[in-house]
Amino acid sequence: MHAAIATEAYTCPKCGERSTKGQLSQTGFHCPRCTLELAHLDLAPNGTVRQVHGWLLGPGDLVQGRYRVTSVLGKGGFAATYLVTDERLQGKRRALKELPRDLYEADFSKALDLDPKFLDARRNRGTEFLRQKRYESAIDDFSAVLAADGDDTGTLYKRAYAYCTSGKGTLGAKDLRAILGIEPKNDDAKALLRECA
Ligand SMILES: [Zn+2]
Which residues surround the ion ligand 1 when the cut-off is CB under 5 Å? Predict the structure, then answer.
C-alpha cells in the first residue's frame, strides 16, 4: 500500500472506530471493533487481497447525486447495503445496494446475451462465480472459454481451483497437469496440484 494512503484515516461507518487504511490492510479490511468488512475487495482464489476497489460509504455521503446515506445495514460478499434517504422524494427512506461496477456479474451476463462468444466476459463472469463460491457455474464458464482456447493457462488454473475446492480433485489434477505441460515451471499449478491430488 502506498505510504500516503496507508496513513489516511478511515472511520468505520457502522461503529465509528477510527483507524488508518494501513492498519486496516493488516486486519483484512475488517473493522477492528465491530468486524464489518470496510472495503470492496478483489480477492485471489486463495483469499489474498489483490486490490481494493473502494471503501464503504459513510453517514452523510451522497450517492448518484440523490441518495444520502444514513447508515450501513450490512456487507456480504462484495455488496454493501445502506439505509438512505431519497433527497428528490422528500427524504423517503429506502435501502440501497452497492456493487462496485467492475465486479457486477449482471453486466457480464448482458454482454454474453449479446455475444455468446465474448470470451473475456465469460472468463470474468466465471471468475466472479468463483469468488462467490458458485463452483458449478464457474466451471461451466471456464469450460466454454477453454473449448475456444485450450491453452489459456490462467483459466485452466481457475477451473482446477473450482474442481479441487468442490471435491472433484481428479478433474482438477488433470487441468493442473495440462498447465504444467504448457508451462513446466508454473509454481502455482504445482502447489495446487499437491493440495488437490
Ligand atoms: Zn466498526
Answer: 12, 14-15, 17, 31, 33-34
Written out in words, the top-level CATH class of the domain with range 105-196 is: mainly alpha
**79 C-alpha to center of ligand 1: Å?**
17
CA of 193 to the centre of ligand 1 (A): 39
Residues forming CATH 3.30.200 domain(s) in the chain: 3-103
For residue 129, report the distance from its CA to the centre of ligand 1, in Å: 28
Domain with CATH 1.25.40.10 in the chain: 105-196
> For 40-65, what is each residue's pLDDT tens digit?
887 777 878 877 878 999 999 998 78
3-103: CATH class: alpha beta
Span 1-15, mean pLDDT? 84
Q: Are 38 and 31 in contact (CB under 8 A)?
A: yes
CA of 197 to the centre of ligand 1 (A): 41
Q: Is the pTM of this model over 0.70?
A: no
Q: What is the dihedral of CA 39, 44, 47, 52, to 10 degrees?
A: -10
Select from 154, 177, 176, 152 the least CA-distant residue to 165: 176
Please calculate the CA angle 143-98-107 and round it to the nearest 5 degrees: 35
